[in-house]
Amino acid sequence: MALALGAGASDASDASDASDASDISDTSDAAKVAAPAALAQPALVTPKALQGAMLAVGAAGARLVAAGERGIILYSDDAGKSWRQASVPVSVSLTALQFVDSRNGWAVGHQGVVLHTTDGGATWKKQLDGVRAAALVLNDAAASFGPERDKAVADAQRLVDDGPDKPFLDLYFDGPTSGYVLGAYNMMFRTADGGTTWLPWQSRVANPKGLHLYGMRGTANAIYLAGEQGLLLRSTDKGDSFKALPTPYKGSYFGLLAARGGVLLAYGLRGNAFRSTDQGATWNQVETGVQSSLAGGTVMSDGAVVLVSQGGDVLVSRDDGRSFVPQPGTALPLAAVAQAGDGALVVAGLRGVRRIP
Predict the structure, then answer these.
(1) pTM, rounded to two decimals
(2) How far is it, in rounded angstroms, from Cα 261 to Cα 271?
(3) Strand order in the sheet with 113-117
């Protein structure tokens, strides 16, 4: 997950700005909600895009792809030495992206946007936005049964009335068809067909306070969620349900990494990071040596774990997350990191994307 720069300043209120499983009738209240202009306005193609704030970066095979504010997506075919701007149909800030192979990838962001590419990030199409997402939640609630139905419908109607003001903050795909998008106020959707259709999934998450969901990662045996106020959850039934895990920390976790040997690393506010070797049953704090919030991370091809902070820190662990050593960083806030094909680190932050030797 690439945390929006400036978010997460406090423990208890890490507020963020956060296709259809069935047809939405043109006569429904949800269908009458007007979409903001940014959901239909393509990202401006400009040379200044290279210096814009970037919130996510990842690999699409040998290509690097980065995404950030105002819908800007960049891609590089020379390990991050030069970049070109992609064609993007929206101009909202994009917070996270993931590729499952060299061509197929997804990006998520503000106003409930989900984008998909089939050409390695050069062009993108919108699969979901906050207006359609709210309508899906309302339809799902209306079709439900039981004593909680009326409350679910009322809550869903408020979501529709609010408009698409809630961002998606992360995503997780375990293949070209199956994946999740997640974000503010427990918003979560699942697809089983590569994003052609989406199902509301928040009712499957044991998050009664509706806390923000910031990060999601899978291992061979489970799928994990991390969020604000120390929220940690795990699914051992292939994502059908997520149950709370004991948490050693009451501050927010902004991301998760799955290192070698089944090691999990949860990282977040004020430089805090915790490590688990037993599928999240217990956690041990890791000394990072920094006070700035840890906003992004990656596992390199040789197994090294890398974390970056909003203070510009770059930390590397070569013992599966037991300890971290600072590397030359930047003086600017960082939001995400990826490994280039030549082994260099590429970071995304306030002034675009850059290589770190």
Answers:
(1) 0.91
(2) 24
(3) 94-99, 105-109, 113-117, 125-128
- Structure tokens of 336? 């995400």
Residue 65 and residue 345 in contact, taking contact as beta carbons nearer than 8 Å? no
317 forms beta bridges with 305
Report d(CA 7, CA 98) in Å as an integer: 21
β-strands 199-200, 223-227: how paired? unpaired
Q: Note the pLDDT tens digit of each residue in 149-176.
A: 999 999 999 999 999 999 999 999 999 9
Q: Dihedral sign, CA of 272, 283, 171, 60?
A: positive
C-beta separation of 163 from 33 below 8 A: yes
What integer pLDDT is reported at residue 301 of this predicted model? 96
Question: Would you state the pLDDT for residue 34?
Answer: 66
Q: What is the DSSP string of 140-163?
A: HHHT--STTHHHHHHHHHHHHHH-
Using the predicted structure, report yes or no on whether residue 180 has a pLDDT greater than 70: yes
Residue 242 is classified by DSSP as B
- The dihedral of CA 15, 17, 18, 21: what is its sign? positive
Which of 4, 345, 121, 333 is closest to 354 using CA atoms?
Answer: 345
Residue 206, Cβ density class (10 Å: 0-12 exposed, 13-18 middle, ≥19 buried): middle
Distances (CA, A) of 278 to 1, 93, 219, 238, 352: 23, 36, 12, 18, 37
Q: Would you place residue 329 in the very low, low, confident or very high pLDDT band (cuts 50, 70, 90)?
A: confident
The pLDDT tens digits for 33-49 are: 567 899 999 999 999 99
Q: Which residue has the tokens 């290589």?
A: 355
